[in-house]
Write a structure and sequence with these properties.
Length: 461
């Protein structure tokens, strides 16, 4: 009774009851609670190793993105700094706000469209193209706040989630096989077996075998160990070129805030804004579905928790990227390598983001990580992403056929958005043909119609 009066007294006065106060939790404990370590059965060691793995498998963007964008006349050093800063901002924001192991960076494909179609093909100044990227990011943000992007994702049947993950897995593995030299282009058969006597190919095979053995022993850091061991062996056999150079991060002033928003608002730029918006929207949806499904982070009803925060981080990163001086920022399918290493929380993305900040000052060293060292991780991550194939109802044609088309077209067209397009259009067509229209959300058919418009646009561009 006395305890009840005591508690009532302090509650009425709105004063802290110091006699009942618990000692403050240590900082690491509070962070573990915020990132839900217990719920995801993870540890700091696992998350940090996963972040390192994610960073290493996508570090190529630090040099590939500036190489592509510099063809527009943009200063190479400035774009390099902008690439690192935007990847860091997006990854840290995604991890801290949405608590997902999704790393972000300027998107491949979108940077090529920015350079070769918009600037070099249409003759649009790179400053105006950056203005178009900014406007697409603002539209992304408005669509997110209005809940439209969330509804679009909800319209994708959950049966296709595993198909998207499998298609992305084959896509990643295909890139890894090309980078390793195990397969090469062929005029006679399109693809052929590469030169197995090449030093770099043999190093890649060594990396594949090492990672496979480590995975068989359930070593969580298998991806990271395999990449670093292959890199070390490459250095030992003089297969890694390293040319140190001076680098001043302040050169970002040559691209930062140089965007021309007024020029991008011109009527001729509307189609550019639409393509930036459209392609990023569906590439991001495909990556998001694939990675979260592979990580087991979807809810029992097949929805993705905190989806609004994920999309907010993505939109904000694109806006910041355009201000800094780079093309559209989006979620990276290489995040699946961190997931394969055990990453399940935002700490994985934050670690990757912090490493991108460090990369600004050690960019020449990061660039020394060759394709043959990262290719083994990509190939075996692709294998791991096929684990969900068993959940597809292969004995039901309405699901099996769209799933098959999704899986097949993602790697063959080199586009997540295109593979998802084939899957959704065929799924919607089969639902209509079998009289099941009332069972599906109307957004599914709108989404299929938008994909058809995309194909019509591509066919006439």
């Amino acid at each position: 009774m006395l305890y009840g009066i005591h508690s009532w007294y302090f509650s009425v006065l709105a004063l802290p009851d110091t006699s009942l106060e618990q000692p403050p939790l240590p900082m690491l404990t509070r962070l573990e609670r915020y990132f839900s370590f217990a719920a995801h059965n993870t540890t700091w060691r696992t998350e940090i190793l996963a972040g390192l793995t994610t960073f290493i498998t996508m570090a190529y963007i630090i040099f590939v993105n500036p190489a592509i964008l510099s063809s527009t006349g943009m200063p190479l050093a400035a774009v390099t700094t902008a690439t690192c800063l935007c990847a860091a901002f997006g990854s840290i924001l995604m991890g801290a706000l949405a608590n997902y192991p999704l790393a972000l960076a300027p998107g491949m494909g979108l940077n090529a469209y920015f350079t070769y179609t918009v600037v070099k093909g249409m003759g649009v100044p790179w400053q105006t193209a950056l203005g178009a990227v900014f406007l697409s990011g603002v539209l992304f943000l408005l669509l997110t706040l209005g809940g439209i992007r969330q509804r679009l994702l909800a319209a994708i049947p959950y049966q296709l989630h595993a198909a998207v993950a499998g298609g992305i897995g084959l896509f990643i593995a295909f890139i890894g096989l090309l980078n390793s030299g195990l397969i090469v282009p062929s005029t006679a058969t399109t693809l052929a077996l590469g030169n197995l006597h090449a030093n770099t190919t043999q190093l890649a095979v060594f990396g594949i075998l090492l990672i496979a053995v480590l995975q068989a022993y359930r070593v969580k850091a298998s991806m990271l160990i395999g990449v670093l061991a292959t890199l070390a062996l490459g250095i030992l056999f003089h297969q890694v070129q390293y040319a140190p150079s001076t680098f001043n991060p302040m050169v970002i002033r040559d691209t930062a805030f140089h965007l021309d928003i007024r020029g991008a608002l011109h009527i001729n730029a509307l189609e550019i804004i639409f393509v930036f918006l459209f392609v990023d929207l569906f590439d991001n949806i495909g990556t998001l579905v694939g990675v979260t499904d592979c990580a087991g982070l979807t809810a029992p009803d097949h929805t993705i928790p905190r989806l609004d925060r994920i999309f907010f981080a993505d939109a904000a990163s694109t806006i910041v990227g355009s201000l800094a001086g780079t093309s559209t920022v989006t979620s990276y399918i290489e995040s699946s390598s961190g997931v394969a290493a055990g990453g399940r929380t935002g700490v994985t993305a934050i670690v990757a983001g912090l490493l991108f900040i460090l990369a600004i000052f050690v960019a020449p060293f990061v660039g020394a990580i060759p394709d043959f060292a990262t290719a083994p991780a990509l190939i075996l991550v692709g294998a791991l992403m096929l684990s969900g194939m068993g959940r597809i109802q292969w004995d039901e044609p309405r699901i099996a056929i769209p799933a098959f088309l999704t899986i097949l077209m993602i790697p063959l067209t080199y586009s997540i958005a295109t593979g998802l397009s084939f899957g959704l259009i065929s799924y919607a067509a089969l639902e209509l043909a079998t009289g099941r229209t009332r069972r599906q959300h109307w957004m599914l058919y709108l989404l299929a119609a938008l994909f058809l418009l995309r194909f019509l646009y591509v066919a006439h561009s």
